[in-house]
Automatic annotation (TrEMBL):
Keyword entries, A-Z: 2Fe-2S, Iron, Iron-sulfur, Metal-binding
Pfam family, one: zf-CDGSH
UniProt keyword Membrane, yes or no: no
Family matches, as SMART domains: ZnF_CDGSH
Keyword Ribonucleoprotein in record: no
GO CC list: cytoplasm
Protein name as annotated: CDGSH iron-sulfur domain-containing protein
Gene3D superfamilies per the UniProt record, alphabetical: CDGSH iron-sulfur domain, mitoNEET-type
Domain called Iron-binding zinc finger CDGSH type: residue spans: 22-61
Segments crossing the lipid bilayer: none
A single GO molecular function term of this UniProt record: metal ion binding
Length: 70
């Protein structure tokens, strides 16, 4: 059984992806990934779609929270 995929929104940083997931571009080409990888959320990475840590250098700020339903 494969591990359930999870995407974690890191405060002021990347999207951390873990589990059984395939990352493909618009044309269906598969990106080579590891079991766990980070996607850029600030838009300034020089290695898009992957995070290269640039968010720390530019002071990217974002800390969204999921809304819990009653």
């Amino acid at each position: 059984m494969s591990e359930k995929a999870q995407i974690k929104v890191n405060d002021n940083g990347s999207l951390r992806v873990t589990g059984d997931v395939e990352l493909v571009d618009k044309e269906g080409n598969v990106f080579e990934t590891k079991k766990s990888f980070s996607l850029c959320r600030c838009g300034q990475s020089s290695n898009k779609p992957f995070c290269d840590g640039t968010h720390r250098k530019i002071g990217f700020e974002s800390a969204p929270r999921a809304v819990k339903k009653p």
